[in-house]
Specification:
Elements: E1 2-10, E2 16-17, E3 21-23, E4 26-28, E5 31-32, H1 49-57, E6 62-64, E7 69-76, E8 79-90, E9 93-103, H2 105-113, E10 122-126, E11 131-134, H3 135-143
Antiparallel strand pairs: 1-9, 1-10, 2-5, 3-4, 6-7, 7-8, 8-9, 10-11
């Protein structure tokens, strides 16, 4: 089960390796702009708001609201899961999608497909941690158990 809270963006045209950070017990490489700050998320996702919303509504147990909020739920191995999302558009194009919740990897993949993945390369900005990760590093982070005892 994945646990996540991230903004999903189209990968910027240029990023460079940033300083690694340790999150949930993993040393993960980050992405930054060539100028040294956070990446500039200027590229649009390859779907319009309406097209993405239409594709989301085809997912089982998905509810979409006109303002771009959506909820996908399910049950796996007796465990209820939910993934909340909020679509953000700018100038008629999808700018980013905020995702928050816990879900199996297959459910995340289904939602990412509504954004044009896997053909579209995506990056993931962790909301709480304030870092940007490539997909494989995001998945490693999301798959990790959160240890609250430390």
């Amino acid at each position: 089960m994945l646990k996540l809270h991230a903004n999903v963006y189209a990968a910027p045209a240029t990023t460079v390796a940033g300083d690694p950070v340790t999150l949930r017990g993993h040393a993960l490489p980050t992405l930054r702009s060539e100028a040294g700050g956070p990446p500039a998320f200027l590229a649009a996702l390859p779907m319009t708001f309406e097209a993405m919303q239409s594709r989301l509504m085809e997912l089982p147990r998905c509810d979409c609201e006109p303002d771009g909020f959506f909820l996908v739920t399910g049950r796996e191995e007796g465990v209820f899961w939910r993934l909340n999302g909020h679509m953000h558009e700018y100038d008629g194009q999808m700018h980013r999608v905020e995702l928050n919740g816990e879900c199996p990897a297959a459910a995340l993949d289904a939602v990412l497909q509504t954004m044009g993945w896997p053909e579209a390369k995506l990056v993931f900005e962790l909301v709480k941690e304030g870092v940007t990760l490539a997909e494989q590093d995001f998945r490693k982070w999301a798959e990790s158990r959160v240890d609250f005892s430390a």
